[in-house]
Amino acid sequence: MIVKLEEVNKVYQIGDNHIVALQKTSLEVNTGEMLLIIGPSGSGKTTLLSLIGCVVYPTEGRLWVDGKEITGMKEDDLANLRLQTIGFVFQQFNLIAPLTAEENVLMPLVLQGVPDKEAKTRAQKALEIVGMTDRSKNLPRQLSGGQQQRVAIARALVTNPKLILCDEPTAALDKDSLDVVMKELRTLADEGKAVAVVTHDPRLMSYAHRVVEVKNGQAYELQKQNGEFRIENH
Ligand SMILES: Nc1ncnc2c1ncn2[C@@H]1O[C@H](COP(=O)(O)OP(=O)(O)OP(=O)(O)O)[C@@H](O)[C@H]1O
Predict the structure, then answer these.
(1) pLDDT averaged over consecutive 10-residue blocks of the chain (234 residues)?
(2) How much distance in Å is there from the Cα of 22 to the middle of ligand 1?
(3) pTM for the full predicted model
(4) Whole-angstrom distance, CA of residue 172 vs CA of residue 21
């Protein structure tokens, strides 16, 4: 187990209004597993992913990431934990436009102060894992959406994080690229990473080991029926 939430909720206060973004949730995220977090817009999916990713603190409850309790941890320690343990992948790839694929992948290692030569070897290895070695000198605009997302996955992987968190990683992709990217993420999970993916797209359920549905801030784990995950109203 890499993440454990125990009765965790998140309430935002805006003026006199309390917005319950996530109701009390208990959940574990395991290594070797792809967890899909699915639900409609505004249901609380990103809030749940942000809690798992130590980007926001819980309002109530207890949260452990990689064996460390987050509640009460200092912001600096939290930032270190994020850098060392978690890789993030976003909908819009967030690659730096004037940098090549390889330079983008190098970035987290530069931030960690890894020596140049070692950083380069690791970046090349990460690009190899996602099948992008032959495009390493290309700029993002010379790559398709699917290829850019594979570079973004390589960038998330290069620090060797135990946990990879993805927020709508396929929203900007066509069906073929969606399949390539999701198979890539599934392979990483099968090989021992913990991967959590937020989506509103039920097509992604077929790639997941486990599915959590979030509705009105309430998270429920879905059980497979006849070998498939099913969700109402889709
Ligand atoms: N920083 C914030 N301040 C106030 N309210 C917030 C904040 N972040 C999220 N919320 C509210 O919490 C609820 C859940 O938001 P969240 O972004 O987690 O939903 P979501 O399921 O990821 O939606 P989407 O798919 O549209 O991104 C929403 O009502 C949202 O307006």
Answers:
(1) 97 95 97 97 95 95 96 91 93 93 96 94 95 96 95 94 96 91 95 96 96 96 93 68
(2) 9
(3) 0.93
(4) 25
